[in-house]
Specification:
149 residues, alpha+beta, Pnp Oxidase, Chain A
Length: 149
């Protein structure tokens, strides 16, 4: 499902946006900064402060997750089914070493939300359609995003 390009984007960005749906059908979008790629079919984030996301997943496990490199103007969208893995379980103990890269922050992880990817699609800005190169877009957006206000 996830290509090497997608996994590279996830590993570099780490910030993904998780879309869920509440019991009343209202969509919710929440940023998560502790993502890891466990395999080409599985990604996960360490839950530090996600009560709404967990509540929605308990009702409906379907999720959409987006990652975007704001400088290269590329990313991907993944869709799948999520499950919540609790601290103190064998599954948590198996997965937790993937999250130690965040040092002291990893000790705040009490649950892991693992998503089994059913579909993944690359996304990029229409500027690529017009012949822009990644180097050109990086130069433009680096200047814009790093400029003092």
């Amino acid at each position: 499902m996830l290509t090497d390009v997608m996994i590279n984007i996830l590993e570099k960005q780490r910030l993904g946006f998780v879309a869920t749906v509440g019991k009343d059908g209202t969509p919710s979008l929440s940023p998560k900064g502790t993502f890891v790629a466990l395999s080409p079919k599985t990604i996960a984030f360490g839950d530090i402060r996600s009560p709404g996301t967990r509540r929605n997943i308990a009702i409906n496990p379907r999720v959409a997750i987006n990652f975007v490199d704001p400088i290269a103007r590329r990313g991907f969208r993944a869709k799948g089914d999520a499950e919540i893995i609790d601290l103190g379980t064998e599954a948590f103990d198996t997965l937790f070493p993937h999250f130690t890269r965040w040092g002291a922050l990893s000790r705040r992880i009490k649950k892991i939300v693992q998503s089994h990817i059913l579909e993944a699609t690359l996304m990029e800005t229409p500027a690529y359609d017009d012949g822009a190169t990644e180097a050109e877009l990086r130069a433009i957006w680096s200047d814009i995003l790093l400029r003092d206000p």
